[in-house]
Design brief:
The complex is a heterodimer of chains A (about 240) and B (about 290). Chain A is α/β, with parallel strands linked by helices and about 240 residues long. In chain A, about 40% of the residues lie in helices and about 25% in strands. Chain A is built from ten helices and ten strands. In chain A, a hairpin with a 2-residue loop joins β9 and β10 (about 215-220). In chain A, α3 packs parallel to α6. Chain A starts with a strand and ends with a helix. The mean pLDDT of chain A is about 90. The radius of gyration of chain B is 19 Å and the shape is globular. Chain B is mainly alpha-helical and about 290 residues long. In chain B, α5 runs antiparallel to α8 (about 185-210). Mean pLDDT of chain B is about 90; it is low at about 290. The relative contact order of chain B is 0.20. The chains are: A alpha/beta (about 240), B mainly alpha (about 290).
Chain lengths: ~240, ~290
């Protein structure tokens, strides 16, 4: 295991029955950094996150969080071990209120810590505080994205997995969300594995960039170097 | 006028029993998308347990409490042992398993207790309450039935709304995948849902048995009417289940009173068919479809 890695993925092979979607991947995510995982549709980005959080069982390999191997555990146990996964297409529970969504995020913590977590969240996200009693279904797309990120943080996770947070959102909102993720790293030392189709926005805030292609790693570099590598960008990222 | 008041109040009391069964079906449906056909059997079995305790100790309330506890444990055990293996399988598997459970429970009850009709003691007097010379058509026992189910339903609502366990139950009902991502151990939550359903079934069984007698099939028609109440309420909503139970109870009591007691089950089935044809999502549903 590399020094300072919160999330250490070693030689993972996973898929949905046919050939492997992830074919022997190794990724190391350092504490307090944002690692962007980029690549075209079908490169295996979402499958990577679903494998880390336990919805896809890897056929081989190790997924270590804080030195504990979580591969092949159940999703709820992986969440309890400190992995917060914000799925693509959001995942707010629209039938619950905003406050109930947030409280749900903190239920894996000791009951003594929950109230403080809620207060802290409302201080950071005034938008949510104002509407705490409303049903989450009344929020707009961008507001829902903020709610699911805030809810994930209620669990005080060791690592946050973000799947396509920009999906379906207007450019201005995307910038807000990316800014929020950057602030969370800078202020709270949050460790983030960010999967994005929108490579340009992701590389702006990321410390490290990984390009996936057909389930294998095509590049793993400093985000700045990756953004500067014109041929790689053109070949895999299309900008 | 007096007749109308009597039929209405009597209908509310019977309706609360349908409501208890409906609530137990809703609790399981919301968590697992399984319609528990064995609910009536579970209720009947719990009522036998109550009867044995009452006959041995002479204490009604001890039997009442033991039956509720038995229903709770029975629900949890059945979910863990019998239902868990089919939860992720096609829906038909669960249908067959819960029908099988019903047959098993009724068969075992017949082996242990025999098939004869047994009288079951009521909690309170069954003589009608009168205000002056005006008979209300309900007894203290009927009032207790309505109050007991209402109290249990309010406790359940408070559990849902104000506790961490209730939040887990609701989150699992609305979105099990999201609940798991947030660390909710949904296996335990589903077991708890079945346990609570077992408790409400037991409550219905103990409350209805004084007026129906107790025998292995005694809950069959109560189950069908409880299911009808749940469908009227939309199968998703605990409050809808209570409302559906009361509406059905009152309607069928008018049928029984004005048209003849033999027609009650027939009209009950008629209402079920009508609701399923005209408004299959129930009278109280706000969302037309459910995102899965």
């Amino acid at each position: 295991m590399s020094d300072g890695a919160v999330l250490d993925i070693r030689d993972i092979v996973a898929g949905y029955g046919g050939g492997p979607v992830l074919d022997g991947l190794s990724i190391s995510v350092q504490a307090g950094t944002i690692t962007a995982v980029l690549g075209a549709n079908g490169a295996g980005k979402t499958t990577l996150l679903r494998t880390i959080s336990g919805f896809v069982r890897p056929r081989r390999g190790r997924i270590e969080v804080g030195g504990v191997n979580l591969a092949r555990r159940r999703p709820e146990e992986i969440a309890r071990a400190g992995v917060a996964h914000v799925p693509e297409g959001q995942g707010v529970i629209t039938e619950l209120t905003i406050e109930e969504n947030l409280r749900l995020g903190a239920l894996i913590r000791p009951s003594a810590d929950r109230a403080a977590a809620l207060t802290g969240t409302y201080e950071r996200f005034a938008l949510l505080a104002d509407r705490r009693r409303r049903l989450a279904g009344t929020l707009s797309g961008g507001e829902r994205q903020i709610l699911v990120i805030a809810r994930a943080l209620m669990a005080a996770p060791q690592v946050l997995l973000l799947d396509e947070p920009s999906l379906g959102l207007a450019p201005r909102i995307v910038a807000q969300i990316m800014n929020l993720v950057r602030q969370l790293r800078d202020d709270s030392g949050l460790t983030v594995l960010l999967v994005e189709q929108n490579a340009r926005s992701a590389l702006e805030i990321a410390d490290r960039g990984i390009v996936l292609n057909l389930g294998k790693i095509a590049a793993d570099e400093d985000a700045a170097d990756l953004a500067a590598d014109v041929s790689l960008r053109r070949h895999y990222l299309g900008f | 006028m007096q007749e109308f008041v009597q039929f209405t109040l009597g209908g509310v009391s019977v309706g609360m029993i349908y409501a208890a069964i409906a609530l137990s079906l809703v609790l399981i449906w919301r968590g697992t998308r399984i319609l528990n056909y064995s609910q009536g059997g579970m209720a009947m079995f719990s009522a036998y347990v109550a009867l044995i305790v009452i006959n041995h100790t002479g204490n009604y309330w001890l039997g009442f409490v033991v039956a509720l506890a038995f229903g709770l444990v029975l629900g949890a055990v059945l979910e863990r042992v019998v239902v868990r293996p089919v939860e992720s399988k096609p829906p038909l598997n669960a249908v067959i398993v819960t029908i099988g459970l019903l047959i098993l429970l009724e068969g075992v009850a017949g082996i242990i207790y025999g098939g004869q009709f047994r009288s079951f003691p009521p909690a309170f007097s069954i003589t009608g309450i009168k205000i002056g010379s005006f008979g209300l058509g309900v007894s203290r026992s009927d009032v207790f039935t309505a109050v007991a189910v209402l109290a249990a339903a309010l406790l359940l609502a408070a559990l849902f709304r104000y506790t961490a366990v209730g939040l887990r139950l609701r989150a699992t009902a609305f979105s099990p995948a999201v609940a798991r991502l947030l660390g909710v151990r949904i296996g335990r939550v589903l077991t708890l849902g079945w346990a609570l359903a077992g408790l409400f079934g037991a409550l219905a069984g103990v409350l209805v048995s004084p007026s129906t007698f107790l025998y292995p099939n005694s809950m069959d028609s109560i189950f069908v009417l409880g299911f009808t109440a749940a469908v009227i309420g939309g199968l998703e909503s605990p409050a809808g289940a209570i409302a559906g139970g009361v509406i059905l109870g009152v309607l069928l009591n008018y049928v029984g009173g004005y048209l003849g007691a033999n027609l009650v089950d027939l009209y009950g089935l008629g209402i079920l068919v009508l609701v399923l044809m005209v408004r299959p999502s129930g009278l109280f549903s706000t969302t037309a479809t459910r995102q899965v």
